[in-house]
Design a protein that fits this description.
Elements: H1 2-20, E1 27-31, H2 35-41, H3 46-67, E2 71-78, H4 86-105, H5 107-111, E3 114-119, H6 127-140, E4 146-154, H7 156-172, H8 183-188, E5 200-203, H9 215-219, E6 224-227, H10 237-270, H11 274-287, H12 293-307
Parallel strand pairs: 1-2, 1-5, 2-4, 3-4, 5-6
């Protein structure tokens, strides 16, 4: 009886969360933490925890596609994981190899045109895992509807250091002018894989840290972060929807702050005259042709109208 009531309550809460969500992030990155602790609490070995966690991964992929997320990055194996006991590492390598080949052959992956890619120092992985990476990438390289990035032998500092060394080498060789070292140039040299800026980072397992994960793409974009207590095998659709809601709340707050700052700037330029203020907003619209500028200037006008700036 209790289990049935709980399922009904969870179903109702899930529907409520889904109705509350107006939009979704383009790129979600997930730190899948807690497999080993989950296994210990259930009297199992680490291998069982990792296997159950792999099932959660498949569910999350479906949720992303259902909600309209366009890119998902999973932190599957960090550079720090090389320090784990050899038997646990070998099991992880077996699991990663098997899941990559399984995903590459899945009907769902091909129906939804999922492009699978590995991010990280893949050459440090055993040959069987490298072969599985190559197989998955080759099988899905023609797809572009959805990107699934699997971070393997990944470390954010190592990624940034590699890009810095690569850039310095190009400058020293005379192939790159220092004046041409731009954000786009650095981005191009990050593990040689184009990745969208991260909109939302999710970490399971209770720890509140992002563990050196995609620092360039997440910190530079001021990504929203959602920490939750469930271990990765326990991560539910409700948890995922709550993470999306956190992203939406952060975006709404960011838009409000942007509007307030823009209004203050316009007032500083135009003074308190509503006529002059509208003229400045009109000039901003002309001078900012990029995507989003029209929305911003419309918001400015509405904010000024609500504020009742004196004539």
């Amino acid at each position: 009886m209790y289990a049935r009531v709980r399922r009904l309550a969870e179903g109702a809460y899930e529907r409520l969360l889904r109705r509350d969500i107006d939009g979704t992030p383009d790129h979600v990155a997930i730190i899948q933490d807690g497999n080993r602790r989950y296994a210990r609490e259930h009297g199992s070995g680490a291998a069982d925890g990792h296997r159950e966690g792999a099932q959660t991964t498949e569910q999350v992929l479906r949720w992303c596609q259902d909600l309209g997320v366009e890119e998902l990055t999973l932190y599957a194996f960090s550079t720090e994981n090389f320090e784990r006991p050899p038997e646990e590492r070998e099991h992880l390598f077996d699991l990663i190899e098997g899941k990559l080949r399984e995903f590459a052959d899945k009907e769902q992956v091909h129906e939804n045109e999922v492009c699978i890619r590995a991010l990280g120092e893949v050459d440090r992985l055993p040959e069987r895992v490298r072969d599985a990476v190559a197989y998955a990438e080759e099988r899905t390289e023609g797809y572009d509807r959805f990107r699934l990035n699997v971070a393997l032998a990944y470390g954010g500092r190592a990624e940034l250091l590699g890009a810095a060394r690569d850039t310095l080498g190009a400058v020293a060789a005379g192939d790159l002018d220092p004046a041409d070292v731009t954000v786009e140039e650095i981005d191009r040299r990050l593990y040689a894989r184009p990745v969208r800026d991260v909109d939302l980072i999710v970490r399971t397992g209770g720890d509140e840290r992002t563990s050196n994960f995609l620092p360039w793409h997440a910190n530079g974009n001021e990504a929203a972060v959602f920490f939750c207590a469930p271990y990765w095998p326990e991560f539910s659709k409700i948890d995922f929807l709550r993470a999306i809601r956190t992203y939406e709340s952060r975006e709404a707050s960011w838009r409000h702050t942007r509007r307030e700052r823009a209004v203050a700037l316009v007032r500083a330029v135009a003074g308190e005259s509503l006529v002059e203020t509208r003229e400045v907003v009109g000039r901003l619209r002309e001078q900012l042709p990029h995507v989003g500028s029209e929305e911003l200037t419309d918001e400015l006008t509405a904010e000024l109208d609500r504020d009742g700036t004196a004539e």
